């Protein structure tokens, strides 16, 4: 047992609740969390197979950020569990919920707790758990339900080969895994597999037998490259902003070449195969999520704010905080200029998956 | 079950790790925590009576602040539990520790987690639990060991009567419970009893039968009034600073009259009676702590910093942040001027108690 961490944490979503915060700029994620309410309900009704539910039901959200989406997800889970045990057990009133909110140590837990505090009355005991979810965070068999929404596409690190100018996997001229460069794609894919395995193996220890793990994450339609999807086009645009700024001498070319997003959007089939291969869990369901978000009202400014909320800390850490405003001003201009071609790819080759895994009874 | 909170939290210890932080200014508390290592060890060896220790041992520190003292205390507890089960059980290696760090929602958990992160390798899984300990924070029977050090002398609020100019308990001309004014002392004492009861009753629900609750807190020698002790003299001095500043027109007289410290130092006998009366716990031990802190090297600046770390947020919240520096500059001057008379009372009529309570098996 060793939960001590020696490596520095990656960058979190933007903290606080100001105009550039994740709190104010996670509408897409929110619409997805809301769209999954009924799916969570069904998962718990049909797939949760706890031998003997004790008086405490422990839930963890992995990659919770600062709210509010994590609170909505948790609320949905608790309502579904209450509904299930209301039907099946007479002693449902004695069931108490403990919810663990996990994110990196440098996540803004103060803001998370402030938001939680304002979010009352609540039906659960709350705790924040700092640290990487690519390792153990909880004692053995201490959780009944795990949840992770829009967190596992973040890699624990950018694969070092893609930044190595001497490697065949050097990702020259790009800041992400476009999909066009096989060696780069393999380096990213390999890091992703490794990260998914460390995540699943740690959760396998922490979840009780019969417990559930719900994962919500983006995936690519099979045969589609990331740069052919809306999100890939967005990353390409961000990369071109950094290139332009390097050409203007605002940032150094070397800094740009040493920057790659630690994000991997897996092809759906590859993800499914990876989940099937893990012996600790059974894949109960993989569904595509249809959200109710109205994309007609989207604006360039809105999408810029959304991207900024999730990449600002990363850019700040690499290039310095003084250039962040300029990056996203330029991004906003470029996005407006290319609006129709980008909107054209939106939602076509890109999807959000709802995955239910159940912890096998045999180890 | 309802852990939602509707009332605002009191003021925490000063956050961060700067020169005025609690992190840098809790040396007295630290010397006490270190002095109790052997007492903790004995308590766990002789008094911890768990029926069947499962694979997880859950510890909570109530009023943890931002470290480092809470880490030292937790380390002592874990080492003692390991020692006990090393001797008694063959399967001690499978015992995993989960530690819950509790403090008010507005405690600086970001700093706590940063300090925790730097404090590796560590032998436990960690979680932060925001919220008042005068109510439930954990599911029933989910903790094996509770710890609270220098937290329970803080009241959940200043009793309203002492600020009410029409009440016989109006505490005119003082900012704390000096002991000279019977009605004031009764109002403070009554609030303290109420707070201790809500604390103990909540912990009684959360601790398993046979689990231990260790409390470290200051108390007065019987027959001594607070203003006759070193800490009372210090509070009187702080009050006189505020009075002087009101006379100079820097702050308003009304503001000073509306300010009383929510701190109560109980007479030792009264505290013992209160603990004996609570039916959920057995009082296993109440000992006076002898610390190794060298008081000869104390300076006025040092004591000023110590007082500032624990009262700054309170003063800021009541009078505004702009006057804080001036208050403690004046305090430092007055303390230097009265140094020998204050040092004379030091450690004479004031003590720190080490209390062990065990959770009764009968409810």
From TrEMBL, chains A, B:
Residues 1-23 are annotated as: Disordered. The keyword Aminoacyl-tRNA synthetase does not apply. One of its GO terms (molecular function) is metal ion binding. One of its GO terms (biological process) is methylation. Keywords: Magnesium, Metal-binding, Methyltransferase, Transferase. This is Probable S-adenosylmethionine-dependent methyltransferase At5g37990 isoform X1. It comes from Populus euphratica (Euphrates poplar).
